[in-house]
Design a protein that fits this description.
70% helix; 295 residues
């Protein structure tokens, strides 16, 4: 008996923590599954509703049943926006892509350069400037939209005015600044010994090492700009330069509303965002993970 008791106690001692660990892991997966279901549910309803007749979309929980599915709503949307009087769907899409491309590419260059100057270069007043950037993060765009409207009133109904105010972004500068500060100074010191100046050091060394943060900023900037609505409402009245989100509001306001076609329009609006995220997903996850660890 004396030899079996310690073995039993050891088994119980090691078995209890394992059981607790399994229960905790099961609880974590259960909570994550519920949260994933809650987030996926509207997307699933959007996708199924876009494939169903308009009369079956607003039927409560029965709207999730995959019945009478077809791509007729997508065909109707593309046919409805295919004339000079209504505008062309692909033109609206192209304007949104062009504006988003200018904002993303210009923002990556401008904001990364600004963050590099405030994080890696030594000059008088850089901490005060960075503090000002942090304060700008607290200012919502809605508070400056009307002053910007009066400043650029003569440039209304142009494509470039939809992009210019959003190239410089305080939050993007903060993201770049946080990542650049984590890079060891010895790397720049070695480049300096090889005769590299600030420009060469930034483009040849810092940028290749910072792919995760560039991807994170690109995705977040594209997502924000793609869904921009307030600024186009203020600055765009000409249908020929109307972006896709603004055109969706016009399309949705038609009477009587066809909810199947509206949801199909929504899927077409979301599709470019999913494509961009799928393309940059690996670097985006690395950037978020590294920011969490370094923060």
């Amino acid at each position: 008996m004396a030899t079996t008791t310690p073995t039993t106690m050891t088994t119980n001692a090691t078995g209890t923590p394992r059981r607790r660990l399994r229960l905790r892991r099961f609880g974590d997966y259960a909570v994550l599954s519920v949260l994933a279901f809650v987030f996926v549910l509207p997307v699933l309803y959007l996708l199924l509703g876009s494939l169903k007749p308009s009369g079956e979309v607003l039927n409560g929980l029965s709207g999730f049943l995959p019945t009478h599915l077809s791509f007729d709503n997508y065909a109707h949307v593309l046919d409805a926006l295919n004339s000079d009087s209504t505008g062309y769907f692909w033109r609206f899409m192209g304007i949104s892509l062009l504006v988003a491309f200018v904002v993303v590419t210009g923002g990556l260059f401008v904001n990364s350069m600004a963050a590099y100057g405030m994080s890696r270069l030594k000059w008088r007043g850089r901490e005060a400037v960075f503090t000002l950037v942090l304060l700008l993060m607290l200012v919502p765009f809605e508070s400056v939209a009307v002053p910007l409207f009066y400043m650029f009133n003569e440039q209304r109904n142009t494509i470039y005015i939809q992009a210019i105010p959003f190239v410089a972004n305080a939050f993007s500068v903060y993201q770049f600044h946080t990542f650049f500060r984590s890079i060891p100074p010895s790397i720049e010191e070695a480049a300096r010994l090889d005769g590299a100046g600030p420009w060469r050091t930034f483009f040849a060394i810092i940028v290749p090492m910072s792919k995760p943060v560039f991807a994170s900023v690109a995705i977040l900037t594209f997502l924000t700009q793609w869904g921009s609505f307030l600024w186009p409402v203020l600055m765009v009245s000409d249908p020929s330069v109307r972006p896709l989100p603004l055109e969706m509001s016009v399309f949705q306001g038609q009477q009587p509303p066809d909810w199947g076609q509206i949801l199909a329009f929504g899927v077409l609006l979301v599709l470019p965002v999913l494509i961009v995220f799928a393309f940059f997903q690996r670097w985006f996850v690395q950037g978020v993970a590294s920011s969490a660890v370094k923060g």
